Amino acid sequence: MSTPDKPKKLPNFAYLDDERVEREAKLTREGVYDLSPRELFWQTRYRYFLDHGYLLRPRYLPDWKPSWEGTNLNPTFCEDSISLNNCQIMDVTRKSSNERVAIKTFLLRTPELQIAQFFASIQDPMNHCVKIHEILPDPLDPERALMVMPYLRPCNDPPFGTIGDVIEFVDQTLEGLMFMHRHRIAHCDVAAANIMMDATALYPSGYHPVRIHYTPDGMYPVTALSRAGRSIRYFYIDFGLSMRFAEGEPSLVWGDVGRELVPEISEDVPYDAFKVDIYALGSVYSKQFEQKYKNMEFLLPLIEPMMQMEPHLRPTVEEVMQEWVKTRATVTEYLFRWRLAPKVEPAIERVVNDTVAVAREGVYRLTKFVK
After folding, report:
1. Which of 186, 223, 225, 351 has the smallest number of CB atoms closer than 10 Å to its CB?
2. pTM of the model
3. SS3 for 96?
4. pLDDT of 267 over the 90 cut
């Protein structure tokens, strides 16, 4: 028979002196740590989620009281002091598997539900659209529903580390866009913020769902493993602005959509939604890689056509993929493992980092030779 784990001893910095205890107690009484109005949305549905097998964090208990009240604990180091950043999405634990998943609230009048469910129904290795575990009706608002999805992390956090990381990202995001366009669906909001990843392989011990650079208890900084050599899968999310077109139907839309600034966007003149996706994804590659790092010249034959000012001059996603396959074939195995060097990196720091990279490459080759 196993014995329960002993409570983890907190570090000294998690405790306050008497003066700061009183100061924090005053802030707590004044409501500094209270749930925001948008967090209350989730608290009022706590028991509904529990009935459906999902457990919210202690902060959202219906009768929540701050765990630090009456103690000398620093609220910053109490997990239930951590409030949501994006109140449209809540992290929960699925009780049956103890797996962390995400629940998103969305309006039923948007096409998001139909498009997300359509993508989720297709088993295809090219499908990089976020999976849908379950759709729950909102118990308090008939105009809304609740979408249960895998819990994912921003695609660029932690930062990309090697040229191989960049190549893998381009591989998957191009493949995913081709999959959508082949099914006559334009995302209409392609942006780095709408490309997420399953980061399980980078954080085998997990991380906090809001304070994502810390351990699951929100206490200690956590360091990611390298992407190189690990299976990372990227997903498109957020189909709230997406458009589906029948076969043969013109793919024209109008109105200001998406996060990326695309030149032809107009409230009055129709424009091609598929060409907007091409421009927006090219902009992602430009901002995330070509503008940030050295030795990204191999991406220019991809980015420049994608970001043509005139939409009719932009390639289709199939043409982009054809060009990418040719470009990718010119990248040597050695270059795959080379580190990304920021353009703003100080000279001394660059020398040190390059030296470390060369040493790692030497170890890699020696290990491969010995095997």
Report:
1. 223
2. 0.89
3. coil
4. no
